[in-house]
Amino acid sequence: MSSIIQSVLGSVSPLTKGSKLPTTPLKETNPEQATVNLSQLHGKNIIVGVPGAFTPPCSSQVPGYARHADDFAKKDVKGIYVVAVNDAFTTQAWKEKLGANHQLVHFLADDNGEWTKAAGMSFDASGLLGNHRSKRYAAIVENGEVKEVFTEDQAPEVTVTAADKVLKHL
Amino acid sequence: MSSIIQSVLGSVSPLTKGSKLPTTPLKETNPEQATVNLSQLHGKNIIVGVPGAFTPPCSSQVPGYARHADDFAKKDVKGIYVVAVNDAFTTQAWKEKLGANHQLVHFLADDNGEWTKAAGMSFDASGLLGNHRSKRYAAIVENGEVKEVFTEDQAPEVTVTAADKVLKHL
User: Which residue positions does the secretion signal occupy (chains A, B) (predicted)?
Assistant: First the structure.
């Protein structure tokens, strides 16, 4: 019965250990084409879901991943993918403003929110941002499968999803 | 019959000469509160609807309004309101990047798209931007009533909505 209700509501179980990442491709630098399929990345990668480009908590959290990128590389991490429900013009402008230029760090636009919804990580941020956005989480994935995931109880908080905290789990 | 279809589709007649502006308030600098009610502005004002913060056409068009702001003021224009279906963090970051700091120029966030939809100026920009956005238009309004409105046939174009073109109609 609950699965029927879930189906009607369109809700999905959130990412958890053992989950496969959604296969929906995401946009990086080209707003006209979604080119990055996170489910097909090889090796160890980090997915960082954030509620909103240019919001103060996200703008304080994300640079930590760029600063620590070499430390992640030493732990055999191939890429760090920041995923936001924003359009690609906005995510790239945000990346530029943050100066997060390390080659390991990618900013991805889930502009229609489909990836985040399929990952069960969507929440209603209408009050502050006008629509549904991504919860704040960080996931360690390997060959498209979630090994560990850390999700903030409150989207504005940056505790378990801070770069230095995630590093300790590698 | 067509009105029934329109009603089912939720479409609204676009702004035209004599239209009243929607009464939905919009956000300016405070993302937590919509404080600007365009329908209640006194005197002559300009509304500039744009498809997307940080997109190249909008980023080339909007600075023209800041550059010409003194010319608009000489024509008794009290304010120029740039309205985008983006959240307020994004519109304010965009304003900062453009350096559009003239006191006449305001950047407003229609973050849930309700104002733009009520104005009949919404279009499906899912392919490039992930959701419905604002057509590109410029409206001369007086005490909340549209006096003239100029809308681009193609949202990426900047022809009739350029600041210098609109100035000539004042």
Answer: none
Write the pLDDT tens digit of every residue in B32-72. Answer: 999 999 999 999 999 999 999 999 998 889 999 999 999 99
CA A69/CA A65 separation, integer angstroms: 6
**Residue A112 domain boundaries:** 50-170
Looking at beta carbons, which residues of chain A come within 8 Å of B113?
130
3-state secondary structure of A96: helix
Give the burial class of A32: count Cβ atoms within 10 A of its Cβ; 0-12 exposed, 13-18 middle, 19 or more buried: exposed
Residue B128: both structure tokens together? 């490039």
Residue from the list B32, B54, B126 with its beta carbon closest to the beta carbon of A128 = B32
Smallest CA–CA separation between A47 and chain B, in Å? 21
Concerning whether B58 is annotated as a catalytic residue, the answer is: yes
CATH number for A88: 3.40.30.10
* B3 part of a folded domain: no
Q: Does residue B157 belong to any structural domain of this protein?
A: yes
Q: What is the mean pLDDT of residues B106-111?
A: 98
**Residues of A numbered 7-26 whose beta carbons fall under 8 angstroms of chain B's beta carbons: which are they?**
none
What's the pLDDT tens digit per position in A91-135? Answer: 999 999 999 989 999 999 999 999 999 999 999 999 999 999 999
Task: Indicate if ipTM > 0.90.
Answer: yes
**Domain assignment of residue B75, yes or no:** yes
Instruction: Flag if B54 and A113 touch (Cβ within 8 Å).
Output: no
Please say if the pLDDT value at position B5 is more than 60.
no
Across the interface, which of A90, A109, A126 has its CB nearest the CB of B90? A90
CB B60 within 8 A of CB B84: no
